């Protein structure tokens, strides 16, 4: 039994005709007939009396009609409530690092003052989020690289640092962290887990490689991934190394599961940005959240 079958049944009883019910519901008459037959088979009793003049409910049909009307009314009310809730929601697009490691703090601090606020959050690459902002999919966007679009305000609100991440094994612990050539050799020799194109972390990783005078073709690429947890699991299992956000791996390094290398003389600090379309009126909640982001002071560990 489903709501389509119930709607067909209620319409047939209400209008006394399969043809009229089908017209009102904008479906075919055979579909209405099928819905009624399926209900009767499931309930094990006839629900309508079919005659030449008008379709009438059976005794079971009368009882079923009242129940079906109540069920449909409740269903419609729930859908309306859901649509209203979603229309009030703030739609956010966020790349991997902001969505996983920054937005939770932002949302927690914001919702403590506005517990009624609701959000619909989509995670994707920085480039895809930027495209979504330009096409109006999101109220606000959060990305790891600057966006140069005339119609979008792109404002830095916190920073991040890119590091080389390895398993916590003796051969990595013995590498001189101040020796650029040793770090470059590590990148050449070890299995490397690469972020997919379109990622801001991938772009910063390319910057690190350039500073070390390494070509991507020199790397022994083991896998291409965008999933942070999957990447960290592979590293912890000793299957490769990667260039990642320090925010993503901080707790794993603190726990002693992985090592993080900076590159001497290479600035790997990047900004994280909040995006907002120019000349577009946000809802009160979205505007309040935007201002909350701009005035946010990150808690120190």
Automatic annotation (TrEMBL):
Question: Which key words are in the record?
Answer: DNA-binding, Transcription, Transcription regulation
Among Pfam families, the record links this protein to: HTH_1, LysR_substrate
State the source organism's domain of life.
Bacteria
The yes or no answer to whether the keyword Transcription is present is: yes
Cited PROSITE patterns: HTH_LYSR
Keyword Lipid metabolism found = no
- UniProt xrefs under InterPro entries: LysR-like_Sec_metab, LysR_HTH_N, LysR_subst-bd, WH-like_DNA-bd_sf, WH_DNA-bd_sf
Q: Could you tell me which residue ranges the HTH lysR-type domain spans?
A: 1-58
Mention one GO molecular function: DNA-binding transcription factor activity
- State the family named in the UniProt similarity comment for this chain: Belongs to the LysR transcriptional regulatory family.
NCBIfam families, sorted? LysR_Sec_metab
Kindly give the PANTHER family that the UniProt entry links to this protein: HTH-TYPE TRANSCRIPTIONAL REGULATOR, HTH-TYPE TRANSCRIPTIONAL REGULATOR GLTR
Name of this protein: Transcriptional regulator
Task: Name its species.
Answer: Slackia heliotrinireducens (strain ATCC 29202 / DSM 20476 / NCTC 11029 / RHS 1)
